[in-house]
Amino acid sequence: MSFKLLAIRPLEGCEENILNNLQVNKFYFFDDSYKQYKDHDFIIKKENYNELNPDFYYSKNENTESTLQSININAIVGKNGSGKSSIIEFLLRLLNNFFKGIDENNKLEKLICVEGIVGELYILQDEKLYKIYINFSINKYKEDAKNKKNEIREYINVLEIPQIISGKVLENDGFKNQSYKNEKYSVKNETKFKVDDYFFTMYVNYSLYGLDEKDFEDDGFIYDNRNKVNVSWLNKIFHKNDGYQTPVVIHPYRESAMIDVRREKELMKQRLSALIFTNEEYRTVIPQYSFDEIRFRLKAETALDHFLIYQFEKQEEDKATLDIFPINISKNIINEKIGFLSKWIDDNIVLVNYFNKKIKEITEGEKKTYDIKIYLYAAYAFLYDIEVRKDEDIDSEDINKPFLSYIIKNQFEHSKLDFLSEEIKKTSPFNKILEKTSNMSLETLISLIQLTISYDVFCKHLGYGNHEIYYKLNTDKFEYHLFWYCVVKTVKTIKYNTNRLFSESFEPKNILKNNKSDLQYLTKRYFVDIIRIDKSHITDKLRRSILLLELIKNPIKKTLQIDGEYKIFSSSSLIDYYRKIVNNGRSTKWNLQNWEFSRDIEELGDLINNTKAIYSRKNIELTDLLPPAIFDYDFYSSIKEKEKKIPLSKISSGQFQKLGLLSSIVYHLKNLDSIQKRANFNSYKQVLVVLDEIELYFHPEQQREFVNDLVRLLKLNKFKQIENINIFFITHSPFILSDIPSQNVLRLKQGKSLQDENGLNSFGANIHDLLADEFFLENGFMGEFATLKINEIFNRLKEINSKISKEQYDSLLREINLIGEIIIKQPLLDLLHNKFKDSLSDNELLVRYYENKIKELTK
């Protein structure tokens, strides 16, 4: 079994902005063991070619507990401007359109088709050779045509190329690209394709200047009405939390062409943590660091406090734009919504008062008017037939728009506002709502409603009574922090759920359309989905915390045989470990020197593994028992020849980049591997990982080790679904290239694919040979400034025809002695000495010159 990309080919009809410097109808081979079949539109395997053994990078025998069958590694090399980025961008466009085109269930409806791409991709999968052909060319109508609008042809075809080529095969129109070119209208092949029948692609690029969506404007944009901006196809494939359902993604995430470095550092740390705790082997991701200690603290705020403060800060920025009332508003609807809010306040008065108390502490009692007041005034005016429009706006077109939209836009006259204020005080439900929610925006109020629904569901699931106690700040209880983290996290993650029944029902505009029992029912269903079905990274931290709460309520014990001895293990040991951290309290000020709890990583690792062993029937993973998100923590590593341990947060940026990059790749592959095959979910057995100039931050030694470190980590992982991984390096590093045989290297020069003419194999080759052969260093390996400086010295020496002064001699001697290459330095020194010797006027000076030379040589 194997999987790898073999070749890619731009075709006639592809737009210039997509081609860049790539050649039309030219095959670009990633694997040199394949060739074009004569002048036909497909490729075949070369005969008698010295191809790589299937187990060159990985043998199945190296990890019998893993589903992984093969690792293939390829490279694309060439100077800047040679076409490397053009190849990869062409591949991304092709895959984007291919997966968008074959998506039958509208799971990829967010993807945007690229206009004007025509090409084909060849892949080897399950030992079969496939050709993926796409034609999204633009039919441009003439100015005098009736329909002047351009039409995008949409044609997709996938063909298996047989191993034996016969005349019957050549007669098949499927192998003739000409047969597609004359289709008048958009066509989609009738063959049923499934997205996860193919492969998942992860493209990693940390370049500051690449992947700016504005550079892809000619590919076609769509207009986003919500955000009032043009959106590129590129925006849609930057990595987001969608459960890896988009089959082609770019890392790291960028917004407006920028990477949030602080966010990326935090994510890298989280990904590394997941590996360090669950596998002892991953504690040495790179040889220089072996993490053996972890230091904890309880987070400065509880999840509840953080949520409430976040909601307050958010409402300071939000504008009043939400209309919870429909166009066909009626008094019955008004009464239903006011009744809902009034009862909700009564049922959750402790939370409402707690929120108001927190806001009062933040604002120091300063009053501010939020949109909830405007909505209540407008609803009251409508319910009691009080005219609130300004006299001059009575005949305005706005009068036909939704009632509250008009109110928000035009506000009230002060006199009518004062009148309504006095009237509302006389009406119990309105007055109560206004009094208790005056510190909230409508968005905040709805978020709190979501919070209380989640709260009720968790209380029932865990069997907690006297619910109000959990609104108090019981900071001495591990359960309290864990409980509120679960409640808050459920509210945050429900919007990511791929089941629209959940995500849409809890959107702010829809939440008041349901009564409390409906919302509780939906939340409970979502809760059950998290526990029993959803094993993706989206709910990873939430599931982890729920499991710990369940272990607190119902601890388990089991006798296990360890090294011939029977021992009793209990889940309470892990809970006690986490509980001690909470019992130590939290610091008032965060700093690296003030951790409350320090332990050996192995201790926690053993507790996690033992708990997993006694809980085996429940189908949990080691990652489900990692430290919950209520803690901050840092890893410490012992360094050779250093007594003081180094925290992960203090290692150099280059070392952190390598640690983070390697752990992120493995982390994402583990997450991808965790997604079960379900009716509404894509899961993959084949993965393509493209690493674009990832050596940007690396010292040569780190570059030299990178391929081996990555392969080593992949070998350690126990995959459950992924079978084949194809890794592509787009690189300028001879150290990385020396780990990749020439058979797997595409060499580019000015958009053209070049054959290896001198027969040098890049695998294990000398670095200088690689620089000359694979990276096209035609002018030597010396810096250009040094080259020009040496030429300048030589020319100055040549031009000396008369006597040379002692000052000139000393100046030139100093510059020549700076040259490190002896083959260049010695001839220049000889020339200088000869020129100076000829300048000496008498024998006495000549004797002194040679005496000085002897002294120099005997030093």
From TrEMBL:
SUPFAM superfamilies: P-loop containing nucleoside triphosphate hydrolases
Domain ATPase AAA-type core: 617-738
InterPro entries named in the record: ATPase_AAA_core (IPR003959), Bact_Antivir_Def_Nuclease (IPR051396), P-loop_NTPase (IPR027417)
Highest taxon listed in the record's lineage: Bacteria
Signal peptide positions on this chain: none
GO molecular function terms listed in the Swiss-Prot or TrEMBL record: ATP binding; ATP hydrolysis activity
Protein name: ATPase AAA-type core domain-containing protein
